[in-house]
Each structure stands twice: as structure tokens, then as C-alpha cells.
Design brief:
The structure is a homodimer of 393-residue chains.
Chain A: E1 2-6, E2 17-22, E3 34-49, H1 57-63, E4 70-77, H2 86-98, E5 108-111, H3 121-129, H4 138-144, E6 153-161, E7 166-174, E8 187-192, H5 198-209, E9 227-232, H6 241-261, E10 269-277, H7 280-292, H8 294-301, H9 307-316, E11 327-330, E12 333-337, H10 345-355, E13 359-365, E14 371-378, H11 382-389
Parallel strand pairs in A: 4-5, 8-9, 10-13
Antiparallel strand pairs in A: 1-6, 2-3, 3-4, 3-9, 6-7, 7-8, 10-14, 11-12, 11-13
Pathway (chains A, B): Amino-acid biosynthesis; L-arginine biosynthesis; L-ornithine and N-acetyl-L-glutamate from L-glutamate and N(2)-acetyl-L-ornithine (cyclic): step 1/1; Amino-acid biosynthesis; L-arginine biosynthesis; N(2)-acetyl-L-ornithine from L-glutamate: step 1/4
Main location (chains A, B): cytoplasm
Protein name (chains A, B): Arginine biosynthesis bifunctional protein ArgJ
């Protein structure tokens, strides 16, 4: 038995973790753009990365370390992704770390921003030199890693175990667009003082990715930099595998939901729940197709219960389906029922009411099996176009 | 040897084809919404349909006829797709044809519009009863089949063969959104007086689909109603297989390009040319991924030469690729060259200039093989959201 309680506070709440964020002049606005996580005791670290074939330089740099290495320092910048920058991208990271006057053990870099420009090394080195590694402002860090995010994303849990011991686990992340299928332009740093064995860390990350980050979509794009990193300094001496996996799942789920709700102008957070498909794989294909369909997303934005677009997307996904077994609902309002026309004025009015909410479910009962999958998506409106038409400027 | 010349005029230019379009009251605006094609001599007819699993009722109705049937009448309505309407959808079509006072041979129906509502049979019957089957206004027909199209789409060619004989081939279509991978919400009716053998008709349609309609994308959705129909009344007695296939390709290419240029608010028609991939299949995957990427589409709208989004989309498509062999250009302006940073102020200014055009190429040289594929897409701006947020109203 264990309990998991949400608590307030940033990463620096966790014993042994320091962090901060500053403005190094990368963002022309003068907003914070460079941050760090530092641990007095070197941490075990595990990460899952983008499936994009063009991994950014910081990912390649990370992967040059031996398996199961320990680190005491993560440097994170926004505004420049250091992706598609060739060998120079990795050299730049080494140059930066070699210029810093700190005692760093296997330092890690993480970047997000525009692809294809060289890192502004001088600004980053000058900024990082000014860091106070004993600082503790998780709030500053959370701001420094933002790009098109409308708000900073963070969460924290305390896990109380049966034997009276406890550990904390929390995260900070960025991500609000290019979020989809297999990770997304998102960075998520999860820190814990749980005494988790290194071998359980990777397993827990992978187990939980499928139903959290890999189930959300803002626009169907997968970036070059996506990273979920788990740092464990073991300071608490408390651990229970089941509790740890569940607490990590909560952290990853919270972060994923905050990202989807911040989907570059999105006003609606929608769960696409596909049930009774013939396999989990097929349920997942449909759920993700729905969360990615432009026609579905614009109809959600227009608060239009145009279930035909949902049906059409299911059919276009080419999974096993039949219009005589399919049932489509918005929350508990059925709008399509196995080919019997049920979409009269009353149902339409009820459905319209559901669509006015900020958060609701689209439930698609395929009616042919017993497998299910839920994907999380959002609407797409003018704001998305505005943000993405001139992101670089 | 043969020559193919574009000529002016609508379908009624072709010997033996009559057509017209009227307002039957389906569109609240009072615009034309019901049209027909009638041939005094029954035609051979072949069609390719959507790959959506939920085929609309008119498609199922067509497929109930025996293979290689002949017809003399196609009835086309806009505003209602007659899709997801169960058995009633097909019964409604039979009811309509049984109510008409014409001598119809295997009549065909074709519908486009909102999914999931029953056909307004009475309005359609009343409208169709008023048809004058000897009318010849291809222009009226081209308007009657429009939904979100900004303009009517039509083309016509005359093919002169070596022996002095000639035939005509022309088309009318609708389609401006939901256009992608394998056909699209698009209807295309191609008529010819070529003396084409029935067996060549289907073959020519399939051969030409891959590089025309199946290569265009507006928003990645595939509808329930997509149809390309070829009607041949053989009146000319002229035929040459090679000439026919090429003329049909021109017709299908013209129609596809008009659809992509009319991509629901699109201002840019962009060819995504992928070259030197290791297989045609991989080239096609990337070309289509680029034409479907929201981040790419919004960057095109913003006239922003943000090649990082193109690179990221190539990487995310998971084809065989390497950042050290990849070259990306806008027309002849190279913006990414095998990892050597070449995107300086001069190249950026040149690239920006290309992006101000209404029409240009994005060329991605994968540098690993010798296969290529070109997909056609468009930008995505505010207008797309406006059109699709409240399409039904």
C-alpha cells in the first residue's frame, strides 16, 4: 500500500536538486532562455528521445556517453534547437562545457527552438558562467525552457510508502506544438529522490510513454529534439517499484495534458476514446487519426457537432470497422448509432452544448471487439496559424 | 504521332453529351446544387472510388451494377453527401430514380456535402423532374457541384491522331478540401467521344491516378465520397491508346492542380519534389508527409523559409535518410546542403523571394538513391480555419 499526493513547488523542492533560469540574450524579448539542473550528488539518468531520424546534436551528445552514466548537470536553452547542424553541433556543446568553470560530471545539454542555425555559443557560455549552482528557482527554469508555450508546465508528487518512508518526484517541461505520435517538440525533465535502481528507470519511462506523451497530438509533427529525461539522486532511501511506476505515470500524464491544453492557441482539450476495436493497435490508429485530423480539429474549434467528419476519419484510417456497428458520442450524447439516424434537433442541441466545454470526450465505439485506446488532442483555430506562420520572427 | 491541344468549352462541347445544373433548394443560398450529365447514346463507364471504408451510398449503388455496365444518366447533387446513411441511403437513390419521368439506363448518382444526414429526396425529385435533358450548359453543371470550392473546375482537350481522325476529352470537378492521399473529397467527371475499348478505360484511370489525384493534398483527409468517373460514348470513332492515356493524364493533372490551388483559402500551390530516395515508395512517403505537415504548411503561408521544418518532417517520416547527404532547395535556392551551414543572409533573402511566389517547388534531394516522387500541396492560413470551423452552417 502507498499513497501519492500532489504537492506544491518546483524541482528544487526535491532534496539535492538545484536549478535556475536566466536571460542569456537568446530571446530578443529579453525573456529567460537558459537554465540548468544541478545535483550535489551525481544522478543516475535515463532518457527517451524522438523517433525523428534527424536527432538534434544534444541527443547525439547524450548518446555518446556510456550506458548507465551518472551526471550532475543539465544545461537547457530555448530559441535554438541545435538540430541539422552537423558535426559542428556536437563540437559546440563540448566547447560550451569546456568553457565553464564548474566541476561537471558528464554534463548534458538539451535544446529547443529553431532548427538549422548554429548555437550562439558565446552568449550561452557567458550566460552559463553567471549561474549560481546553489540557486533554487525551479520557477525561473520553467520559464527559461519555454518557446511558444503560453504557460510554464510543472508538477510535483510526494509518495508515502507503507514503511513510513517517502520520496518525491516532479517535473518541468515545455511543449505546445509539433506534439505528436512518438514524443513531440517537447522537453520534459523529471527529477526524483526515490532510491530507484537504474534498471527500473528506463523500464518505467518506456512503460508510461505509450499512454502519456505518445498519446497526445497537437499537430501531428514529431520534432528533432524531443526528450523525456529522468534524473534520480536516490537521496531519500525510499523505494517501491509499483509506487514509483504509478507516480511517474502521474507526472508524465500531467505534463502531457498540460501540453495538449496548451496546443498553440488551443481552447479545447479533447479525449478521443476509441472502444471495442478488434485490437489495441487498431484502436490506437483511429484515436491518433482523430486527434490529428484537421477537419475534426477545425470542427471542434467551431463547436460544430459535425460527426460526419469523425466517421469519415475512422473510415479513412482503414481499420476494421462497419457503419452498422459504429456508435459515436460526445460525452454521453449519442450522435450516430449504427446507421439509425438519431441526429435530430434535440440530439444536436445536446451535442452542441457538450462542444461548448473546454474539455470533453469524443467516444467512438467500433462495436467489433474489446480493445481500446485514448488519444488526447485539441482544436485548431486562427491562433495556431498565427503562431506558426511566423514563428522564427 | 499525335497532338493534344487544349480547347475552350465545357462537357457539352463533346458530341453526344448534354448537361445542366439548377437550384433545387438544397443550398440555402439559392445557388445551383443539382446537375446532370445525359448521353443520347449509352456510355461505357468506369470509376475509381475513395479508399475510405465508409463508402457513401451513391458509391455502393454504383457498385451494385454489373461490371462494364452502360449508362445514359448521372445525377449529381451538392450539400448532402448521402454518407453514413445506412441502407436508407441506397433506397433513397432508387426512390429518386423511380420517380423521374425519363428513359434512364442504369442511372448513376453522385453526391457531395455534409455526412450523416438523409438526402432531401423531395427537393431532389422536384428539381430533377424539371431537367431538360437536351440542355447543354456545362457551365451550370460545374457550378451545381461546388461546395467550398472558390471556383468551378473544368478543362477540355482535342486529340488529333496521325490518320486525321480526332477525339475530345474533358472534365468537370469539385474539390477544395479534405483532399489527400488516395483520392479526396473530390468528384471528377471525365467525358470523351474517343472510341476507347472498355478494358482500356479502367487501366488508364488507375495508371494516371497515382501521379495526379493521389499526389495532391490539402489537408490529409480522405472522404467517403471521392469519385473519378470516366464516361465514353465512342461517337468519334477515333482512338489511339497511347494518345488516350496521355490526354487523360493531362485532364486529371489539370483537375488535380486546380483543386490544390483551391485548397480552401490556399494562396500557394507548392510542388514537393523528392529526388534521389532509395525507392519510389520512400520518395512518395516523404513527399506526401511534406504536403501534409501543418508546420510546413503554416510556414509556407507565412512566406518563411524555415527549412528546419522541412528537414524535421523528412526525419519524422522515418525513411532512409542522412543529414550529411540531404540537400533542400526552394526552386534553385539551396538552403540546406549536407550539413554545411549555407543559410546565410544572402541565401535567406533569395529563399524569401521564392516564397513570395504563388507557385514554386520545394526540392528535397535525399542523396542516397535514384527514385523520385512529386506531391502537390498548398499553404494553410486563417481562411482554412474559417471555412472549416463552420462548414455546416
Amino acid at each position: 500500500m502507498f499513497t501519492i499526493l500532489p504537492i506544491k513547488g518546483y524541482l528544487d523542492q526535491i532534496d539535492g536538486f538545484n536549478c535556475d533560469g536566466i536571460s542569456a540574450g537568446l530571446k530578443p524579448s529579453g525573456d529567460k532562455d537558459l537554465g540548468f539542473i544541478y545535483t550535489s550528488t551525481p544522478c543516475d539518468v535515463q532518457a527517451v528521445f524522438t523517433e525523428n531520424k534527424f536527432q538534434a546534436a544534444p541527443l547525439k551528445h547524450f548518446l555518446q556517453y556510456e550506458e548507465n552514466f551518472k551526471t550532475n548537470f543539465v544545461l537547457i536553452n530555448s530559441k535554438n534547437a541545435n538540430a541539422m547542424t552537423g558535426k559542428k553541433g556536437i563540437e559546440d556543446i563540448n566547447t560550451i562545457f569546456n568553457s565553464l568553470p564548474f566541476d561537471l560530471i558528464n554534463p548534458i545539454m538539451s535544446s529547443t527552438g529553431v532548427i538549422g542555425n548554429p548555437l550562439p555559443i558565446e552568449k550561452i557560455v557567458a550566460g552559463a558562467k553567471s549561474f549560481d549552482l546553489s540557486a533554487s528557482s525551479g520557477e525561473n527554469l520553467s520559464k527559461a525552457i519555454m518557446t511558444t508555450d503560453a504557460y510554464a508546465k510543472t508538477c510535483m508528487y510526494q509518495v508515502n510508502l507503507e514503511d513510513g518512508s517517502s520520496f518525491k518526484i516532479g517535473a518541468v517541461s515545455k511543449g505546445a506544438g509539433m506534439i505528436n505520435p512518438n514524443l513531440a517538440t517537447m522537453l520534459c525533465f523529471i527529477c526524483t529522490d526515490a532510491n530507484v535502481p537504474s534498471k527500473d528507470m528506463k523500464e518505467a519511462l518506456i512503460v508510461n510513454s505509450e499512454t502519456t506523451f505518445n498519446a497526445i497530438s497537437v499537430d501531428g509533427d514529431t520534432s528533432t529534439n524531443d526528450t523525456v529525461m529522468l534524473l534520480a539522486n536516490k537521496k531519500s532511501n525510499a523505494y517501491d517499484k509499483e509506487a514509483f511506476i504509478e507516480a511517474l505515470r502521474l507526472v508524465m500524464h500531467d505534463m502531457a495534458m498540460l501540453m495538449v491544453a496548451d496546443g498553440e492557441g488551443a481552447k479545447k482539450a479533447v479525449a478521443f476514446e476509441v472502444i471495442n476495436a478488434i485490437s489495441t493497435e487498431e484502436a490506437q490508429i483511429v484515436a491518433k487519426a482523430l486527434s490529428n485530423s484537421l477537419l475534426v480539429k477545425t470542427a471542434l474549434f467551431g463547436e460544430d457537432p459535425n460527426f460526419g467528419r469523425i466517421a469519415s476519419t475512422i473510415g479513412a484510417s482503414r481499420i476494421t470497422c462497419d457503419e452498422e456497428t459504429l456508435v459515436i458520442s460526445y460525452n454521453d450524447v449519442i450522435v450516430y448509432n449504427k446507421g439509425e439516424l438519431c441526429f435530430d434537433g434535440i440530439q444536436e442541441a445536446k451535442a452542441s452544448k457538450v462542444l461548448k466545454n473546454d474539455k470533453y470526450k469524443v467516444i467512438c465505439d467500433i462495436g467489433l471487439g474489446d480493445s481500446s485506446f485514448t488519444a488526447y488532442g485539441c482544436d485548431l483555430g486562427y491562433k495556431y496559424v498565427e503562431i506558426n506562420a511566423d514563428y522564427r520572427t
